[in-house]
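Worked example 2:
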Amino acid sequence: MRNFLIDTDTASDDAVAIIMALSAPDVKVLGLTTVAGNVALDQATRNALITASICESDVPVFVGAEAPLVRTLQDAHWFHGANGLGDVHFSSGSRVAESEHAVDAIVRLTRDNPGLTLVTLGPLTNIALALARDPQLAERVGRCVVMGGAPCCEGNVTPAAEYNIWVDPEAARAVFRSKLPIEMVGWHVSRGPSVLSDAEIAAIEAFGTPKARFAMECNGRARSAYQIQTGEIGLSLADPTAMAVALDRTVGLTWSRHRVAIETQSELTRGMTVVDRLGVNSDAINADVWGAVVGESTGADVLWTFDSAKFKSMLYAALAT
């Protein structure tokens, strides 16, 4: 069994990603750690519990950071609905969150399960706090799959930035400067052929399973918001694309390793993931900007192209059971 730890600001696409992990027969999800982002922390936690209930899972849920490191939270209600689940109301059953704080849980679980896969689906606040608590955490993580960023392309919250990085760029900067083995799955891979068409959505609904019904119902608002945002018709599922990579890295077709700097000062490009794709940065000139000091990260694996057909097959398999 592979051990996963999932950090999430649980809204509609996070929920589908969590279902994929909880449905994988060779994966044990050690915990869901919640963070403020798409919705406030209490709602993100409730949504994580709802998703676990839908999957009939007893995965523990740990409550984390209620705000970005230094900024005021700016949620994504306009995209996911006020409750993060398309304003459709679901029951979380009798499940409640654990008393242990998410940051403590991240530190403990990485100590107890070296080599685990850490999947981040929201702002990186919890991960930055855990690294500050225990910098050696980075060396205990086998893979760190980050849903975030807009490498060399437009963002989904500003022209320069993707939402998860933009919400807490200071946290993202700390994480990308760490020794974590980051695999960066940007917003771009959830577009184009990865978008579910109306016919594909109907096919999922026809599965008739609780997972399939929940996945499509809670993403109704996101489906219409995506069309307003991009002019494209269909359902884009960013977090599930990252989860697909975590479950099977070969779904990512083209990768390359680069230094990635996170912009924290500019209002125009706040949260931009600046990828040194051509290697033009000089460490001697920009050491502070790029975190290029001895012992710090030498970069991240950046995903450029994606096997959308394989992703959809993985998604269908999770929702059909």
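The longest strand covers residues 27-34. The chain has a mean pLDDT of 95.
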